[in-house]
Amino acid sequence: MINGRTRLHVVANGTMTGQRYIDEVLLPQVRLFRGAVGDKFVFMDDNATCHPILAVQDCLDSEGIQRFVWPARSPDLNPIGNVWDGLGRQVAGRNYPPTNKNTLIRSLTEEWDKLPQQLLDNVVLSMVRRVECCITLHGGHIPY
């Protein structure tokens, strides 16, 4: 978000299923953040296989969370990819790259906290261009 960020939340054990996504991400994280932001909050995910399932959409609907719908297989439109790219470069460039899950989680968390806020602001501000592209792909209709 502009001028801020949440803590990085790492879900590290096992496969992320739709139910885990609901229980470990949507309800404890997204719902609370949406409550803090208010009615203008629009949630974006990246179309991972556990995201578009009916139970996830039902959960979002029941919580009054509006989801921005991206075209299938369009990671370049979702701005979080730019953030993950920057975060990955930072972790890869460390003097002592992570060698196991625990050091990877610690590295990701430390580098997340050090990402320049300007990078996050620029990604948010790029949404106008991304939405215009998405509208063009949807034949002139806003897809949410």
From TrEMBL:
Residues annotated as transmembrane: none
GO MF term list: nucleic acid binding
Top-level taxonomic group: Eukaryota
InterPro entries: RNaseH_sf (IPR036397), Tc1-like_DDE_dom (IPR038717)
Domain Tc1-like transposase DDE: 37-97
Protein name from the UniProt record: Transposable element Tcb1 transposase
Organism: Trichonephila clavipes
